Amino acid sequence: xxxxxxxxxxxxxxxxxxxxxxxxxxxxxxxxxxxxxxxxxxxxxxxxxxxxxxxxxxxxxxxxxxxxxxxxxxxxxxxxxxxxxxxxxxxxxxxxxxxxxxxxxxxxxxxxxxxxxxxxxxxxxxxxxxxxxxxxxxxxxxxxxxxxxxxxxxxxxxxxxxxxxxxxxxxxxxxxxxxxxxxxxxxxxxxxxxxxxxxxxxxxxxxxxxxxxxxxxxxxxxxxxxxxxxxxxxxxxxxxxxxxxxxxxxxxxxxxxxxxxxxxxxxxxxxxxxxxxxxxxxxxxxxxxxxxxxxxxxxxxxxxxxxxxxxxxxxxxxxxxxxxxxxxxxxxxxxxxxxxxxxxxxxxxxxxxxxxxxxxxxxxxxxxxxxxxxxxxxxxxxxxxxxxxxxxxxxxxxxxxxxxxxxxxxxxxxxxxxxxxxxxxx
Length: 426
Ligand code: AMP
Ligand code: GLY
Description:
Elements: E1 2-7, H1 10-20, E2 27-32, E3 42-43, H2 49-58, E4 63-66, H3 69-73, H4 76-82, E5 87-88, H5 96-99, H6 101-110, E6 118-121, H7 124-132, E7 138-142, E8 151-154, H8 157-168, E9 180-184, E10 189-198, E11 202-204, E12 209-210, E13 213-215, E14 219-222, E15 227-230, H9 237-257, E16 263-273, E17 276-283, H10 290-297, H11 302-310, E18 325-332, E19 344-345, E20 347-348, H12 354-359, E21 360-364, E22 367-369, E23 375-377, E24 381-389, H13 392-403, E25 406-407, H14 419-425
Parallel strand pairs: 1-2, 1-4, 2-3, 4-5
Antiparallel strand pairs: 6-9, 7-8, 7-9, 10-11, 10-16, 12-15, 13-14, 15-18, 16-17, 18-24, 19-23, 20-25, 21-24, 22-23
The structure holds adenosine monophosphate and glycine.
């Protein structure tokens, strides 16, 4: 089959990398892709979603997989389905779970899913009144998409009121802050749990843990994610069971009965507090860099997972994961996440060590090629170095060995990816 992957990051590269190893897949297109995805397939420069659907139709694309949230929230699935195309992801209505935090929180409340106590408001007086009734710290969230920046953890009530004012006035995030959520702070540890859904059925993937802060020890500013690993030993059967029974099942059932069945990836941001899972947020796509590890752990043909979800046939799928661990370390450019950096040539040493060759791969993200075909680091997060192993330690060591094989000016990474798991195991 021929597959179109929408997106340009390491997440989309890793999906392409998994599909490249799938005998059922002939050709892979990326829209728009990056400077390395054209080694896996062909990059297509079409941004308009209607035109992209026309391209898929004209080229008899059998399956389209959407990586990022923006096209999903803008209705790419509806557009493709209207043209009779098979596409992996939720419809525009279902993508509101990520597109609007107010929609998401109200859905959690309606379906009885455990989450932080909150109010939704567009009035600064109401916001101030609620904030004054809460204990510190206080979480303030803009309703709409803000590229991961719309959440403020305010240490004091004054800071929370200031953040609310900034959002509601439109100063901080424009229209995305016209409505806000104010919620209680949950103190626990965070997990990313992914369920692949087809409107009725679902498959839960190995739970992952992301490292959102820039610096070791979870210090410094938030980023898109500096590394991740899966499966995490911070999840046991009891937590998986609670997440299925209290979160996934009521959410899918509730959405279905509201006439918006959910298909695609349900990315569940979980905070575990005293062994109880609370939902911080839903996203409607794979996490990045979590996807890069999950794709490495997938033991079934990747096309089966995506196709059976897109065609509402997950009940007949037999998806297997390797009995291994994967650790992914993000290599970022010099000025990430504060600003852009000068393009820098990337040199990857020849990997002569068989063990490393077999158990690692690079998922390229912010890269482009110059006219001589040289690979340049041009984005914030440049790549993810992924290691597999029979223990987290082995996977971590391999990932860092690979990190040492890659060179570009300004290269930086965290050195403590998977530390929470290793601390627990020690
Ligand atoms: P969100 O985009 O809603 O996941 O928020 C981004 C990050 O803010 C999360 O990954 C958490 O680290 C943190 N966060 C969000 N909501 C809360 C909360 N209620 N309590 C504690 N931390 C939170
Ligand atoms: N890694 C977190 C995210 O993709 O939102």
